[in-house]
Amino acid sequence: MDKKYDNRAWFMVLPVVLLVAFSALVPLMTVVNYSVQDTFGNNVFFWAGTDWFEDVLLSDRFHDALWRQFLFSGIILAIEVPLGIAVALAMPRKGWLVPVCLVTMALPLLIPWNVVGTIWQVFARPDIGLLGYFLNNVLGMSFNYTLNPLHAWITVIVMDVWHWTSLVVLLCYAGLQSIPDAYYQAARIDGASKWAIFRHIQLPKLHRVLLIAVLLRFMDSFMIYTEPFVVTGGGPGSATTFLSIDLVKMAIGQFDLGRAAAFSIVYFLIILLVSWAFYTVMTGKTKDSQ
Amino acid sequence: MTLELHNVSKVVRGETHIRDVSLRLERGSLNVLLGPTLSGKTSLMRLMAGLDEPTSGRVIMDGTDVTGWPVRKRSVAMVYQQFINYPTLSVWENIASPLKVAGRPKDEIERKVAEAAKLLRIDKMLDRTPLELSGGQQQRTALARALVKGADLVLLDEPLANLDYKLREELREELPRLFAETGSILVYATTEPAEALLLGGHTATLHEGAVTQFGPTLDVYRRPHDRRTAQVFSDPPMNFLDIELKGGMAWIGEAVVPAAGSLHGLADGGYTIGFRPNHLALKAGRPHAVELEAVVAVTEITGSESFVHMDYAGCRWVALAHGVHEPEIDAPVRVWLDPERFFVFDRAGDLVAAPEPRAAAA
């Protein structure tokens, strides 16, 4: 018997194919295109092979930015995750304070990144900023994030903690709320300490939301651009020049398209790799606990 | 070791959860708290455990007033409807946890955990975590944890409700024996009258936060002091009908019959009769049975039995009949009531007469 093939199904998929092509594949291929060629203008291109990639991967500039990026993500994860858990634990479980806390917590998340940057840029200024003025004139420190790299780092990190800890808090709070009350009762009857309750009941129950929180915060912080760009512009010197800031400097500031394209692809692959690693760990752990 | 509650009440934000409860539970006794959902079983247990403090009244343990003592200072173990274990600890560590908190020596812990695990038949799963166990085994782990603690008061809050039928029967049989040796006061909350009867011991029936009756389980079942108790202790619910007695005759619905059975010898006046679903017959049989005509509402068939719901004079009745019965819905059906099986309550709801327990009655 003849089987009739009906290819009309392909038409149904076409919109998605076109959308993905224009939103992802075409721009990505353009970048790939630049990354393997060189040009001196006038739309004349020369084949460059893997030269740009070698150049980027071997350059100190890239190594420094990558190292700064990992350091930044590491620090903010080390602060935001424990702090987020602590705040979530301290929040009331019921009563009228719950909505008050939730809204207060959600506020920083609702502010556009650009505005967050501007707020902190002004807030930390030594001359007119409330924080900067206080540190310099009341506490007598000489705090200046535009001159001192350490101060710049502190400012950027505190800003990120202020902006994003809420996300961890809200995720953890939701996780904590889902623990049945009977667990706490049973622990009270057992005479378990607060630490034992946290270690053996709350933390295991938070395990999944925490993995999601860490993944989200890692990816987001690894791609951070707007806030440090507004506050420090990557300075002083290149002290707070993270990967995406460096990339924009290279591509738009210096118009070094080939090198920037190779940079982009390497950057993209790193994020892909780390996300895949997280995903594997997450699904692996999930299997264990079932 | 006795636990006494003296006029204990609990009011939460103007809402009465427990209303003036007085109970005396003896050492080594099995006590069933029987009542529908929200009747206050869990609230009462929380007060007994010391998880909550009563709004008024006293809790006396062994002659000592422990009202207001934190749960930590009391000797209490509790098992819940949900299977509550520490998710990351192994079964062994779970069972050992109350002993570890109490700071017992290592060899004692080893011995007690091994004993409890063996009694509850989970000794082959000690290395697993609770999530790797079946529901029944998880609950056995929780029970073993309560058992090793050797608490004076063991509270079981519908411990078998989340288990399937077979496991439930198995554990229900084991439970009273498990704790019998420890001499603990065992309190068991359930919504099912049948479970209370199977467990035996004493039963306290709860209705809207108040204990309506407390006594040996079979006594409460046979002679409920009032309508509420009879209602709580009957599943499917007891059927009721208002009747009149006058000059030795009884006006039961449309029938006027000589006052026989439980009605015999009662003073003239208005009463409410109650009869269990298995005493509402769908066919004539007993000699003095009163014949009435009701209207069929719904029929549920379980296989060996049928529940026929019907309306009679504004009351909803249920008849439990053996075998499969499929009367037509909304059609009249003839039913027979046996006056020998009537519970008779006065208009205030207090018991006036109860059926004589039949020797070896089926």
From TrEMBL, chain A:
Main subcellular location: membrane
SUPFAM superfamilies: MetI-like
Subcellular location: Cell membrane
Keyword hit for RNA-binding: no
UniProt GO BP: transmembrane transport
A GO CC term assigned to this protein in UniProt: plasma membrane
InterPro entries listed in its UniProt record: MetI-like, MetI-like_sf, Sugar_ABC_transporter
UniProt entry keywords in alphabetical sequence: Membrane, Transmembrane, Transmembrane helix, Transport
Occurrences of domain ABC transmembrane type-1 (ranges): 66-278
Family indicated by similarity: Belongs to the binding-protein-dependent transport system permease family.
Protein name per the record: Carbohydrate ABC transporter membrane protein 1, CUT1 family
TrEMBL record, chain B:
Name of this protein: Carbohydrate ABC transporter ATP-binding protein, CUT1 family
Record keywords: ATP-binding, Cell membrane, Membrane, Nucleotide-binding, Transport
InterPro entries (UniProt xref): AAA+_ATPase, ABC_transporter-like_ATP-bd, ABC_transpr_FbpC, ABC_transpr_MalK/UgpC-like, Mo/tungstate-bd_C_term_dom, NA-bd_OB-fold, P-loop_NTPase, Transp-assoc_OB_typ2
Database matches in Pfam families: ABC_tran, TOBE_2
SMART domains: AAA
ABC transporter domain boundaries: 3-233
Family to which the UniProt record says this protein belongs: Belongs to the ABC transporter superfamily.
One GO MF term attached to the UniProt entry: ATP binding
Source taxonomy: Bacteria, Pseudomonadati, Pseudomonadota, Alphaproteobacteria, Rhodospirillales
